Amino acid sequence: MPRDLKKGVQVRVLPDHRARPAVAALRGQLATVLSWSQAENCYRIELQNGEQRILHRLDLEAVT
């Protein structure tokens, strides 16, 4: 999978049914990409409240 979201990019957890059930509580929240893990194929993000999470790319969309 390409590393298309770079460090510092603003993202949103998908706000609808496209996000996996495991992240349902985070749907629609804005966050900032901190890093990407090739081994885990996931992004470490920081939510606006300062909480850090690791989410799969499929659960995120770039904010334009």
Protein model, in words:
By secondary structure, this protein is mainly beta. It has a single domain, classed as SH3 Domains (SH3 type barrels), CATH 2.30.30.40. 0% of the residues lie in helices and 41% in strands. The protein has no helices and five strands. A five-stranded antiparallel sheet has the order 4-3-2-1-5, with no helix packed on it. A hairpin with a 4-residue loop joins strand 3 and strand 4. The two termini are 21 Å apart. The model has no long low-confidence stretch (mean pLDDT 88).
Concise account of the structure shown:
The chain has 64 residues and is mainly β. Helix content is 0%, strand content 41%.
Give the topology, please.
Blueprint: E1 10-13, E2 30-37, E3 42-47, E4 52-56, E5 60-62
Distance between the first and last residues' Cα: 21 Å
**In angstroms, what is the radius of gyration?**
11 Å
Uncertain stretches of 5 or more adjacent residues: none
Strand order of the largest sheet: 4-3-2-1-5
Average predicted confidence as pLDDT? 88
What keyword list fits this structure?
64 residues, mainly beta, SH3 type barrels, five-stranded antiparallel sheet, 5 strands, 41% strand, globular
